[in-house]
Design a protein that fits this description.
single chain, 181 residues, 2 domains
């Protein structure tokens, strides 16, 4: 269910774009972002920071897109979101006792500090890369291609990165299990 809630605004944006245009899709994404935050608050009595960040950015960039009738604002939003996440993950290397990735996954797996740091830096690089790829697609391809990339390309790259991360972590999880035996 969490997966659906996380991707709800992107999915509705995609559907609205295919049925109408970028401006209707942007308005739908704004409403969907608000609904996502409201739903999260209603169900969990709290809202994840990621949802707050994306909501603020969809309102700002989507609002500029609608007010100025310029689709470039909404096209830049994914890059800004990814770069902000990269900055947050990078900052967590130096602020606090745990990196962001350790805070997110530390309850599920135990890893040495150096592996948490490497993993966190890998996410920094991935988010930075994803932001750059989005800019490349924005300026190289038409809006139809960008919308498809936003849903399928970014999701596919993220899925591939998570799978690669799983393979990387598997050797450390096996070592930890062997040490416990």
């Amino acid at each position: 269910m969490k997966f659906f809630v996380d991707f709800f605004p992107i999915l509705l944006f995609f559907i609205a774009y295919k049925l109408y245009d970028i401006y209707v899709a942007t308005a739908v994404a704004i409403v969907a972002g608000i609904a996502q935050v409201a739903y999260s608050y209603f169900i969990n009595k709290k809202v994840e920071n990621m949802h707050w960040v994306t909501l603020v950015l969809i309102i700002v960039f989507g609002g500029l897109t609608l007010a100025l009738q310029d689709e470039m604002f909404i096209k830049w939003k994914p890059s800004v979101v990814n770069w902000l996440f990269a900055i947050a993950f990078l900052g967590s290397q130096y602020i606090g006792k745990k990196t962001l990735i350790e805070r997110m996954l530390g309850g599920s797996i135990e890893l040495p500090k150096e592996i948490w740091n490497r993993l966190n830096l890998a996410w920094v690089g991935f988010f930075g890369f994803l932001g750059l790829v989005n800019v490349f697609v924005v300026y190289t391809f038409d809006t139809d291609t960008w919308v498809n990339f936003k849903l399928f390309g970014m999701f596919g790259l993220t899925f591939a990165f998570v799978i690669a991360q799983g393979f990387y972590l598997s050797r450390y999880i096996k070592e930890a299990q062997n040490e416990e035996s």
